Records
---
Amino acid sequence: MRLLIRKARILDPSQGLDLEGDLLIEEGRIVALDREIPPPSDCEIFEAQRLWALPGLIDLHVHLREPGEEWKEDLETGTTAAAAGGFTAVACMPNTRPPNDSPEVTRYLLSRAREVGRTRVWPVACISKGQEGRELAPFGELKEAGAVALSDDGRPVADSGLMRLALEYAASFDLPVISHAEDPGLSAGGQVNEGPVAARLGLKGIPAEAEAVAIFREVRLAALTGVPVHIAHVSTALSVEILRRAKEEGLPVTAETAPHYFTLTEEAVLEYNTQAKVNPPLRTEVDREAVRQALAEGVIDAVATDHAPHSPLEKEVEFPAAAFGLLGLETAVPLTLNLVREGLLSPLRFAELLSTAPARILKVPGGTLKPGSPADVTLIDPDLPWVVTEEELHSKSKNSPFLGWEMRGRAVLTLVEGEVRWRLR
Ligand SMILES: NC(=O)N[C@@H](CC(=O)O)C(=O)O
Ligand SMILES: [Zn+2]
Ligand SMILES: [Zn+2]
């Protein structure tokens, strides 16, 4: 099958390309990219005027809840939501039941992905057995089974010595390490950002320092070991300053943030709105502004969603009993496009944050439209207005703080290896 995408705005950070042109796809690969490609015989044509064509978006941080919490999400619904959000690949975190700390779980995820996956699935395995922070998981076996990275996401690795060992051991298997940076002593019992909002609600706060202290530890461990560390879900101005300094020192540290941190503030939890309860918590306007600047300046390298589905069982309860986490896959594109519209990001930087950088951080294929590459392509209508409703969302859960929001911009076509995995209406 051949497909010619015509007159799109082609954005490919891997080649520094931002041009209006055509993209020819054949047998699952990109075979040509040019200002104008004469349609070959026997070719389907997709007219893409006013649309953006990007290397398939890659979400390096999602929770698919399989195995063990399939009432919230499963591999099929999670990857369907991903494709609808414009993603061609997702990296799934290991805090499942059981956690992905064994080659059996990794292999199970990959076999489910082959059977029902709508996108590529890159399993992230545990740093520690059972995510208990005591003993390292079997990195070599996990890598052999198909894990692409390591993280105890959902929980921090509290023991700094164990984290150092994890970095050294991970390096010998060339597995990236992703840190859920949280000092558990400082965050213990916390529900929302520490400050006036927490006080007003009568809830225990989580200070910015709980994140900063942990990020500083990872920065120093990267310096000590020379092994790269990737920081998950950066939420504060203080964290941004630590990362800025680390980068100035030339240390091998990368970081992601999520759209909720550059869109919302702690005000979203007023009235005990559990849909906005997330870890790390939504912070202040100063933090939000710092995160936005960090994305523009390159201090934060990538946008990930931290898509964390929960059912009403976990969310429609009193605030302290509610689970942390919110949906992200289907709202990331319009929320990140807001930063383009505000003049903070160029369209090329947008593509970098959501595709090329995640591929580089995870060391997985993708993030490019170079001829010869697999045809993982996302077409976005950057202006399309739509409203977030439960019916629109493909995720099994509906825990989005953006329900009812008017959005602008949406994926209209998602191709994985040239196959249509999502087409808007
Ligand atoms: N971010 C969250 O609030 N929740 C995540 C865990 C995590 O990402 O740390 C979850 O698994 O629900
Ligand atoms: Zn986390
Ligand atoms: Zn997470």
Note: The radius of gyration is 20 Å.
---
Amino acid sequence: MLLRLETLTKRYRTGDLALTEVSLEIPAGQIVGLIGPSGAGKSTLIRCVNRLVEPTSGRVFLGKREITAMRGRALRRARRCMGMIFQEFALVERLSVMENVLTGRLGYVPFWRSFLRRFPQTDIDAAFALLDRVGLIEHADKRADALSGGQRQRVGIARALAQNPDLLLVDEPTASLDPKTSRQIMRLLREVCTERGLAAIVNIHDVALARQFVGRIIGLKAGRIVYDGAPDGLTPAILTRIYGEEDWGGEAHPSGPREATAAALTRDELVRAL
Ligand SMILES: Nc1ncnc2c1ncn2[C@@H]1O[C@H](COP(=O)(O)OP(=O)(O)OP(=O)(O)O)[C@@H](O)[C@H]1O
């Protein structure tokens, strides 16, 4: 098993219980879509895996290594094996596309080299190959802020792959993209995972998109897993269990900005869209 979560619980200092005893296993090469209403705990779960968020209790294993038992250098080394891709791309705007991809290698190069941004030739060659793979080779020297949203997300994907990860942690990769670009990005993610045998957890608001591109769906509600199975098993009854009868904004963020994409659809509209 590539990734194993054992009774993972997260309570924030504010008292919010974001995850309650979540256990799951993901084999190498599997792409999992994580769905659920706003505040269900999707981002928290993804961030507990690489300990950007510190779990309150429970354990995380990557292969045989226990991530939750690591500190310092061992943790940094383990994090290299987990590439993150973010909703807002999180690129360094003033750097070139190529330099952004190379930042994926920072966990590997000595500090002085990263400070001077001097990377080994093998890293540079690999970064060119990745830019070619994601269709951006002719944009290598452009500044990141000169690209479109879809192109920026491709840089985000290339950067994560530059780490040579075993697992991708993907947080709402298409939240700020139009439907066609969203499909292209999901297709690219699926292709690169297949080519490299990578597993991925993709936190995704758009259930129809998830069904189209992932092999397994985990539904979270109020910090607990309420569905884990094939996309085809997401019946209207199960969607109601995940999202509730009301519109699927959820009570957790009554007016939070993050629910904008989700709250626009009611459950009935969602069921019709599938
Ligand atoms: N840094 C934090 N401090 C305190 N509470 C937090 C923090 N981050 C998240 N929470 C709370 O934890 C719960 C789960 O939030 P999380 O962001 O993981 O959900 P989500 O499913 O990713 O939601 P969304 O789809 O809106 O991003 C919510 O009640 C949220 O308010």
Note: The domain at 1-70+169-174+203-208+217-274 is CATH 3.40.50.300 (Rossmann fold).
